[in-house]
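## Example pair
The file below holds two records. Each record gives the amino-acid sequence first, followed by its structure token line.
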Amino acid sequence: MFSNPNFFSILCLGWGLITLTYAFVNFFLGKKSAEWSLKTFAAEKRPLWMTIISVLYLVLVVYTWYAVATMNVDKSWLIAVLFSLGVIKIYFILFDYEAFRQLCIEFLSKSTTVALLNIFVVIFSALLVFMGVFYYS
């Protein structure tokens, strides 16, 4: 089952467990979590930590594609494509923060969209964990 972990299984597990934890915290804290998310992710001025994490994410995306090219892992490109989709969000965080901020405010202000996001994140995270444990290991 998890006898030979590689970069892709670790990436899937790490990404899946972090997002799954965030979704469950969102679910259990409810409105408090939405208020915290609004304050944290929709601050008027982009926080320095957000820039640092965005740059680190970009570095990890580049390394992931390097790993696809150099490691012999079947269908490794699949996780690389999924991971690369986050670059869209990173672009807005780094280069059009106001648009990102407005989207966060609009999205996190409605309990229906927050609930739908949490459902999607739980399903996607479970898929990532499954891929990390059963597919890429």
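Second record, same layout:
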Amino acid sequence: MKILHVGNVGTAYVIVRELRKRGIDSNLLIEKQQIEGLASINNPIKFDKGLDGSIPEWVNFYSTNEKNWKFNLLKKMRKYDLIHAYMGLPIYAMFSGKPYVAQSVGDDLRVIAFKKSVKGLLLRMAYRRAKTFIYEWPPHTSYVDQLKISNTMFIPKPWETSTFSKGKNEKTNGKTLTIFHPLGQDWHWKGNDKFLRAFARLCKEKADIFLYYVDWGKDSEKAKKIIDTPDVKERIKILPGPISREEMTNFMEISDLVADQFNSGSFTRTGIESMFFGIPMILNLNEEIFLKLFGDIPSAINAKNEDDIYYKLKELISSKDNLIEMGQKTKIWAQKHYNLKNNIERYIQVYTNILKK
């Protein structure tokens, strides 16, 4: 079994690393820009504690700036028994002549696949022709249904959580409700503005609340207009972002709650990390989809709009000790459903079934 993963760093890197630990010949092929600049937070050196400061030899690169890059990409694909393609790369896997798995990770499914363009058409076709189509985020269920992709499987995002496995040692000191919000500002997809407006309202009321806020993302400048008031400035520490995973754990340790996202109906990668750390989240959670996919739901503060966030935070200010038990419960939930060993075995079973046919 010789497998090429192509087009993604985060999910694919973790899968390939785990496959190789099990003796399965696997390699990763990505563009260099996927781990540079702001995307450097995806660089394996920054999240894989087992590395010695250099990229593993089984991670290879291609460049779309090179002449004949598409031909060379197909040539590389044809050296493998099976292709596992992400983002827009299932299109090329479709023309490789090899069996392939297609996996969505974000905008590829929820945006590009719905476009009335040549790329959108080809991506939809590639999803439907894949031996198996895998999606890793619960809210993507509706997009899969809309596109009528029949050969689907949901597998929770495989992710490296060892940095967060230590967990919180004890509750934070004092009565102040301390919140950590490390997500990049992307108001369309993440709804961060709902949280910031609710927080600003509480600050105006002189509420006993404090925020560690990581300043980054495409809507960062708009966010500044919300938090640039005297009342908020007294209750916020602004951190230039994005920040490292080690810094993330430091701020989780001194916080009571993580503010995740409020539009999609699920948590982000940060949410997975916070659950393993044992710190609860406030987010918009689509409980119906979680019950369908997991059979149960994580213990979290479920808030869907600005008013909802405002009132639930206000209530927590006087009852923050309840968050300790909630954090413990959400950690147990994550260990059950985001167990890396178990989920990698599901991928191996997918590959085995495809190659047996």
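Notes on the second record: The mean pLDDT is 94. The longest helix spans residues 340-356.
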